[in-house]
Specification:
The protein is α/β, with parallel strands linked by helices. The protein folds into three domains: 135 residues, Alpha-D-Glucose-1,6-Bisphosphate, subunit A, domain 3 (Alpha-D-Glucose-1,6-Bisphosphate, Chain A, domain 3, 3-Layer(aba) Sandwich), CATH 3.40.120.10; 206 residues, Alpha-D-Glucose-1,6-Bisphosphate, subunit A, domain 3 (Alpha-D-Glucose-1,6-Bisphosphate, Chain A, domain 3, 3-Layer(aba) Sandwich); 80 residues, Alpha-D-phosphohexomutase, C-terminal domain (TATA-Binding Protein). The protein has 14 helices and 22 strands. The strands form four sheets. The protein has a six-stranded mixed beta sheet, sandwiched between helices. Strands 17, 18, 19, 20, 21 and 22 form a six-stranded antiparallel beta sheet that branches. A hairpin with a 6-residue loop joins strand 21 and strand 22. Helix 8 packs across helix 12 and helix 13 packs across helix 14. The radius of gyration is 22 Å and the shape is globular. The two termini are 35 Å apart.
């Protein structure tokens, strides 16, 4: 079944992901992992609500108890699992992919995501596993985790330091909408909400916050309302991108650097994990702030497990995922980055553009360049031949790093046949030249 990807289960609804598939997945999970108690949550899709009811019915019949947090963002869901530590936790979502898709993300008792071989083992057993209906059924219990999540959230900042800011919030009609409303309702400031309707059709724009088409509405509103900044979330709320007071999109890389700086103010000499897509400026700024750093492979399962392994306090990806430590475990959260940046801007009495200017004026990067239907191995061979005097790194694709520039060339783990290129340099001129040089090698 092609729905079993590297990091999750994902496919078209109802052709590939449907009630029958969910029942089978429930049976495999309960038998393979001997799950007696399962945490369950879902995103805003109508099909998620349908599949959630099927999941509960199937699990209860098989004798498992279900703690159901219902509609929630990925961050709230992961927080709930870190709190209750059920045998498994299942979140129904297709993240930033369109309304005609759905999927399954699975966490184990420690909050680590099942992926890779774990999912392939589930795939192998899905047609052969049958569980008899238990004489004693399990029970469903609805859980309100929001008060505990908000307590954790507000403990990470000093609310008294927050100044009144005018902020545009775009929830993409996604699962973050009720979480953002609850999180920001008591804070100083004027928060204009757009696309908070939990609509299944996502008619306003794509669920992918990195697509330029998703930016048009919020950029226009920031200028129109003279706002201090704006933020845009993806469908399940674990990614957040920022726009400054002029409506300009702030590349997640610069937010990575800013948040790393903020976290090192709060946690001296702490360890920060990051991906290898862009790194020159980030590493320099972490070292400058007396922090420690480690590069790991991209992907949320990798970041969650490695944060636990290395006791990191914060991690960031160029994809606009941000990870935080909760009770020695890790969650990807889309609200805390906003609160941390509001606090930093308030304390320093500066705008977002001023906060990132020290990075944008020193470190220059392309937006991610995507290729479809190219021969990745052949392109890598050509790049290695061309840059034969530079030591390659094969962590997460192919990378070359010098003192003045860096590039990463990798296959997407979530979108088949897509290859991604990121380039960084310490001058705009060098970036333009390297981009031209590298694209010429790949395309020709």
């Amino acid at each position: 079944m092609s729905i079993f990807k590297q990091y999750d289960v994902r496919g078209k609804y109802p052709q590939e992901i449907n009630e029958k598939v969910i029942k089978k997945i429930v049976q495999v999970l309960i038998k393979k992992y001997k799950a007696k108690k399962i945490m369950l949550g879902h995103d805003m899709r109508k099909s998620s609500d349908v599949l959630s009811r099927v999941f509960v019915k199937s699990a209860v019949k098989a004798g498992a108890d279900v703690l159901n947090i219902r509609l929630a963002s990925v961050g709230v869901f992961a927080f709930a699992q870190n709190k209750y530590k059920t045998d498994l936790a299942v979140y129904l979502t297709a993240s930033h992919i369109g309304r005609n898709y759905n999927g399954v993300k699975i966490l184990n008792k420690n909050g680590t995501a099942l992926h890779g071989n774990d999912l392939q083992e589930i795939k192998a057993k899905i047609d052969s596993t049958v569980i008899d209906v238990k004489s004693k059924s399990g029970q469903e219990k609805n859980i309100d985790i929001m008060p505990q999540y908000l307590d954790w959230l507000f403990a990470q900042i000093n609310i008294k330091k927050l100044k009144f800011l005018n902020i545009i919030l775009d929830a993409s009609n996604g699962a973050i909408a009720p979480v953002a409303s609850a999180s920001l309702s008591t804070l100083p400031g004027e928060f204009m909400k757009i696309n908070f309707g939990l609509q299944d059709k996502f008619i306003d724009h794509s669920l992918d916050p990195l697509k330029k088409d998703s930016h048009k509405q919020i950029k226009k509103l920031i200028k129109q309302e003279l706002s201090d900044l704006g933020v845009l979330w993806d469908g399940d709320g674990d990614r957040i991108v920022f726009f400054d007071e002029t409506g300009k999109f702030v590349h997640p890389y610069y937010i990575n650097i800013l948040l790393s700086k903020i976290m090192l103010i709060k946690y001296s000499n702490a360890l920060i994990l990051h991906d290898n897509r862009l790194k020159l400026g980030l590493e320099k700024e972490i070292i400058k702030s007396s922090g420690n750093l480690k590069i790991i492979k991209s992907g949320w399962p990798n970041f969650i497990s490695k944060m636990q392994k290395y006791s990191a306090v914060f991690s960031c990806e160029t994809s606009a995922h941000y990870y935080f430590c909760v009770n020695k475990n890790a969650i990807a959260d889309g609200i805390l980055p906003l609160l941390l940046i509001i606090e930093y801007l308030s304390e320093n009495n500066i705008s977002l553009s001023q906060a990132v200017s020290e990075f944008t004026e020193k470190y220059f990067t392309t937006h991610e360049i995507n290729f479809k239907d190219i021969d990745f191995k052949n392109a890598c061979a050509k790049l290695q031949m061309h840059f034969k005097n530079i030591q390659p790194l094969f962590l997460d694709g192919l990378s070359f790093t010098t003192e003045n520039w860096h590039m990463n060339f990798r296959e997407s783990q979530t979108e088949p046949d897509l290859v991604r290129l990121n380039i960084e340099a310490n001058s705009r001129k060098l970036l333009v030249n390297k981009k031209r040089e590298i694209l010429d090698i790949i395309k020709n």
